[in-house]
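Hi team,

Filling in the usual template for the complex we talked about on Friday. All components are listed, including any nucleic acid strands or ligand strings, so the model treats them as one assembly.

SUBMITTER: L.P.
PURPOSE: interface mapping
COMPONENTS: two
RESIDUES: 810
SEQUENCES:
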Amino acid sequence: MAKASWQGTNLPRVGGFNRAVVLDAIRQHGEVSRVELARRTGLTAQTMSNIVRALIDDGLVTENGHAPSTGGKRRVLLKVVPDAYSAVGLHLDPERITGVLLDLAGGVRMRSRRRVPDDTSPEAVGAALARTFHQLVRRSGIADGRVLGVGLAVPGPLDAANRRVLGPPNLAGWADVPLADIVEGRAGLPVVMDNDATAAAIGERWTGRADRAGSFVYVYLGSGVGIGVVLGDQVHRGVSNNAGEIGHVHSGGGRECHCGRKGCLEAYCSMRAIVADWRAATREEPNGEPVAATYESLCRSAADGDATATRVLRVAATRLGQALASVVSVLDVDRVVLGGPALRHVAELVRARVAKVVDAQVWAPKVRPVRVETALIGDDAGAVGAASLVLDHAYSPRLTTLLGS
Amino acid sequence: MAKASWQGTNLPRVGGFNRAVVLDAIRQHGEVSRVELARRTGLTAQTMSNIVRALIDDGLVTENGHAPSTGGKRRVLLKVVPDAYSAVGLHLDPERITGVLLDLAGGVRMRSRRRVPDDTSPEAVGAALARTFHQLVRRSGIADGRVLGVGLAVPGPLDAANRRVLGPPNLAGWADVPLADIVEGRAGLPVVMDNDATAAAIGERWTGRADRAGSFVYVYLGSGVGIGVVLGDQVHRGVSNNAGEIGHVHSGGGRECHCGRKGCLEAYCSMRAIVADWRAATREEPNGEPVAATYESLCRSAADGDATATRVLRVAATRLGQALASVVSVLDVDRVVLGGPALRHVAELVRARVAKVVDAQVWAPKVRPVRVETALIGDDAGAVGAASLVLDHAYSPRLTTLLGS
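RESULT (copied from the run log):
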């Protein structure tokens, strides 16, 4: 029998949801009293007291001194126990694997980087990912039972239902790879997987505290371009978990894209495309260096004031801004966050140009000024986001808790 | 004190939410038993029994015979009482005012059309809207207390917080008009206002029964182009209630738009733009006829097999399809619904072309085949949508009921 489009809710579900709401509020607001928590979450003092006691019993929250006196009894402050649990995040980029160990408070405890092996077969790459995981756990000295799981951030598109990577054009030779299962088999812990842009958006919310609440579009600029969509404090994943696949939308031009079609955004805004533009402008031949390395040279030149490098980046940022203006118009969000490794050295240059284009092209600016900001997390956005997937899955309030799924 | 980003919930809120869930399920699924309702909504038999009794006491639901026997006791069927309440919807288009009276079951009881008066001042147009409202209520013979309110669908953008129309480029001379208050003053009933595309999307869900649940993009094709975004059975309105303003996103071309910028989607896909293309192709001079009338002649010609008219419409539909491919890619929805008066005579021609372009340009087609359909509601989509705003506001399950706002 088909389910109704809305499911009702009940007391056990409400209990689980409210517990997640309280933990989320403590995490986001730092040190906070029970009274303040009750006010912030709309829950009664009695409900709050019960939930906090359970969170303390479970070791997730601890009492941490007293608030300054405001006349009456000084209030006990609560905070999350960072060491209670942690998660490992692994980010697979076409050229690099990055791993982090993230604690419950969103702090990065360990970090590890390695090149993607020359043998780029799924098994070899899966083994390299698992090695990064084991190395992080070993070096951290954290007891096995305290690591909740592994988050995996990969370039989209994904077949999320079957935990498979569908052959992103940036990873040659990969088609329909069961990567989550490969890594899970080698790591011995549950693996959750998402595309890198969505993971980075969750990471920004998880580690970024209260100022990353609400609705925003997170633009992940790595080898390619993807966006993570956060609406009303919930990540929007879409019917096939591929929301935010903006890299291959038609951007108005006719340039050939590595995906085989023409005019895609990544034909103009990927690292590869920008490097090609730079080589054309400077009449330099490719020198066999990896794309990311040449791209970084280009960005250093722009940061040092080189006019050609600056112009090439501005042209790409203009096209990115046009695509984002459409996204902002359709979603009606008032915040765009730019993040990812492609911004290194040039974050403000790119931000300023995107902001200018968005401001000029978004309709109804009077009722909807749009802020364009750079991310709180830098180069490691993908890996931190991957680890956040695990913590978010375990601890964030979610409507499916309340309504069933 | 700032609220936490998530609010907790409690029993009274759960009660109100579950009641709306049950009414919505009865409305969407037609005649249905308590047992089936409990299964569909995930609520217990006891909770269901209590909620249904209250809905019957309030006159919103009635018992309506028995289900065929399946061996045991025959189950009593429930259905919504259509006459319990109704709402008036008014749609203001640049050339026409359409009004409908909609009953609680989503049936259109009365319909009224008039031309926008020659005096297009906000007061004169507001008076014409109010006349349409009074005429509908008078002709229907429905008791005043049974009309819940007035819904108003207007071209965006809006300043929703202040209930003002911000001067859509299709309504010359309108800038920052408090239209909802003007109509409310003259109608004597509460007025809710939204842009026409969002209203039409809600109408499609309200009157369309279960096959319009879930997530979809509704494309409203009137004088201009707007979209309504429905995600997980909730209308997505955005931070300023202007989500779906797609008419003035950059579509890749350089043609001047009536909004003063270049390359907007409406510079190619509005009725005015398509009529101009037709005149250019047939070398006909403008004849002083309203744009909508010429547009309708064009569509009749295309329906009769005229090659030029068909080609002009296909070119516009191609550009529309490209814009929608981007929206589908970003949101990851698997359904696009095309509706509105601009489809009259040519719905299948436009649908087929849009479907072809979307299919070719949306990434990850393997995990996300996208259906492109025409709307269940035809010409009156704006007005039916407007009335649905009122019913939806009063009776649909919404998360703000559960979580506070």
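MY TAKE: The radius of gyration of chain A is 22 Å. Chain A touches chain B through 87 residues (CB under 8 Å).

Thanks, L.
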